[in-house]
């Protein structure tokens, strides 16, 4: 390969870039990490905007490239198929050859010589290009995840310096929102726009990639707004975008999607809801409610800002994904307006309940990647926990549900949340007299009348960590106990273990039904 070709490969080494800066496989000197991030600043900042669509007349950008005729013809076809600028198509072609191609020069000539082999080869390069786009998004996601002081990452200091560069003039959030617009508004490719190779099957592959990129971009926004405030214009812009998109269900290419896309569609819708909830910053709302001063909240700092968000919220209420947003806004109104406009607040809350908000949140917590052990899962649980905490601060537990079914959904959500280490710790820290802890206190007071609810909540809390389990056991040891005869006894009411021997200590296991006394000094 010519030297000019080798120099261009760097632009399409996102997999290697991610492995390098994340420390995957091997830890490198910190100075090298800093240099690599600095060298790729523009690419990491722009993300998917880094890739340009064809602009120059065909062949103009390849004139100064040292290409054989077969290679040039192939790159021109690749440009059309990927809808990518010629010089970038050239780069991805040679990047694939240097990184993923395992054949000989003779194999390469064969791949370029016939149309059948050429098409298969082009599909492989398309897959490589798609993975490169995802790795680029993974780079910024990783850096934003581990740059803060709370994270103990070996490159944290280098990440912090780099993030501060990206944050200059709010460039990072501008680029992220531009990428959201790019992905959501991208039309479905056809043979007319992307060449004859773009048939229905390849269009489905493109749609799947588009949705995966949306998914990754939403994870980045979720992390971003964990660390930084969302201003009202950005929030309203995203809310309108997600609403028009039907929270993932009304993609511009929805007519070609089949059932295999349902999982991705639900993931996108759930992550869009979580991103907006993260931007609403319910944790700060709950904290500031005790001081009655909301100047530190970006969406509530003045009446004009509040009203701009109110105007956007008034347009919600038709789809179930709207319900968590409506509930959260009802909570904000209740705490921010201190009871003023109670009828409107009640309207938002009733709309949320009519859309089965707690059922929606419970099902959301069972979806990947929200249900897993990833950073995204932890953040998602934290966001929903802050919504629940603020809701229980603003309203009494009994007024949040209309019937027993909704109450069970609320308890299911609470169980799924309290099983997380950091949430269980927060519950014990705040005590059982407020927030989510108050629900556990209610279950304790309802024992033994309602036995199963206490068992479920206790099991969830105890599963978080050893310290939480000890506290649960301590509370259970203080519970009132009683014994009463059953009115009717039957064999199916009793369960016997398979082992007919009863262990009592030091290996002594007398059979069930044995009568006698043990000398405990022997045991």
Question: Helices and strands in order, then pairings?
Answer:
Elements: H1 3-8, H2 14-22, H3 30-39, H4 41-46, H5 69-82, H6 86-99, H7 105-113, H8 115-146, H9 156-166, H10 171-185, H11 191-194, H12 200-227, H13 232-244, H14 262-280, H15 282-288, H16 303-313, H17 323-336, H18 342-354, H19 357-364, H20 375-394, H21 404-418, H22 421-430, H23 435-445, H24 451-464, H25 466-477
Tell me what you see in this structure:
- With 523 residues, the chain is mostly helical.
- It folds into 2 domains: 3-130, no CATH class; 167-418.
- Helix content is 62%, strand content 0%.
- It is built from 25 helices and no strands.
- The protein has helices spanning 3-8, 14-22, 30-39, 41-46, 69-82, 86-99, 105-113, 115-146, 156-166, 171-185, 191-194, 200-227, 232-244, 262-280, 282-288, 303-313, 323-336, 342-354, 357-364, 375-394, 404-418, 421-430, 435-445, 451-464, 466-477.
- α2 packs parallel to α8 (115-146), α8 (115-146) runs parallel beside α12 and α12 runs parallel beside α14 (262-280).
- The longest helix is centred in the first third of the chain and has 32 residues, at 115-146.
- Residues 1-9 have low confidence and may be disordered.
């Amino acid at each position: 390969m010519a030297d000019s070709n080798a120099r261009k490969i760097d632009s399409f080494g996102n997999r290697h870039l991610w492995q390098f800066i994340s420390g995957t496989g091997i830890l490198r000197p910190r100075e090298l990490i800093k240099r690599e991030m600095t060298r790729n600043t523009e690419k990491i900042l722009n993300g998917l905007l880094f890739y340009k669509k064809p602009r120059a007349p065909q062949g103009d950008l390849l004139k100064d490239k040292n290409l054989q005729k077969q290679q040039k013809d192939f790159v021109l076809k690749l440009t059309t198929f990927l809808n990518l600028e010629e010089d970038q198509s050239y780069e991805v072609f040679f990047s694939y050859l240097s990184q993923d191609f395992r054949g000989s020069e003779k194999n390469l000539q064969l791949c370029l010589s016939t149309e059948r082999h050429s098409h298969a080869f082009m599909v492989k390069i398309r897959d490589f290009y798609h993975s490169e786009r995802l790795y680029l998004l993974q780079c910024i996601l990783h850096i934003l995840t581990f740059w803060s002081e709370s994270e103990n990452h070996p490159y944290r200091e280098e990440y912090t310096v780099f993030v501060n560069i990206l944050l200059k003039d709010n460039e990072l959030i501008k680029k992220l929102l531009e990428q959201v617009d790019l992905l959501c508004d991208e039309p479905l490719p056809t043979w007319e726009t992307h060449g004859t190779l773009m048939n229905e099957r390849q269009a489905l592959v493109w749609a799947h990639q588009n949705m995966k990129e949306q998914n990754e971009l939403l994870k980045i926004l979720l992390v971003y707004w964990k660390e930084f405030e969302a201003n009202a214009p950005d929030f309203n812009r995203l809310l309108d975008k997600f609403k028009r998109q039907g929270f993932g269900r009304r993609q511009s290419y929805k007519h070609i999607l089949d059932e295999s896309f349902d999982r991705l569609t639900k993931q996108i819708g759930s992550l869009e809801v979580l991103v907006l909830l993260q931007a609403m910053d319910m944790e700060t709302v709950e904290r500031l409610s005790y001081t009655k001063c909301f100047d530190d909240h970006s969406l509530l700092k003045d009446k004009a800002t509040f009203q701009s968000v109110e105007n956007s919220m008034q347009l919600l209420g038709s789809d179930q994904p709207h319900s968590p947003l409506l509930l959260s806004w009802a909570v904000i109104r209740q705490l921010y307006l201190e009871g003023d406009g109670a009828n409107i607040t009640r309207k938002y809350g009733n709309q949320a309940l009519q859309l089965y908000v707690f059922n929606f949140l419970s099902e959301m917590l069972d979806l990947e990647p929200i249900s897993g052990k990833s950073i995204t899962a932890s953040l998602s649980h934290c966001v929903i926990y802050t919504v629940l905490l603020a809701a229980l601060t603003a309203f009494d537990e009994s007024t949040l549900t209309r019937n027993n079914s909704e109450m069970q959904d609320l308890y299911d959500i609470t169980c799924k949340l309290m099983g997380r280490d950091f949430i269980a710790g927060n519950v014990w820290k705040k005590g059982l007299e407020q927030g989510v802890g108050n629900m556990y206190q209610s279950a304790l007071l309802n024992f033994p009348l309602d036995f199963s609810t206490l068992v479920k909540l206790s099991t969830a809390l105890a599963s978080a960590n050893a310290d939480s389990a000890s506290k649960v056991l301590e509370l259970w040891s203080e519970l009132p106990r009683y014994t009463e005869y059953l009115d009717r006894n039957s064999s199916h009411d009793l369960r016997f273990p398979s082992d007919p021997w009863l262990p009592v200590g030091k290996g002594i296991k007398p059979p069930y039904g044995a009568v006698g006394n043990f000398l405990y000094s022997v045991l």
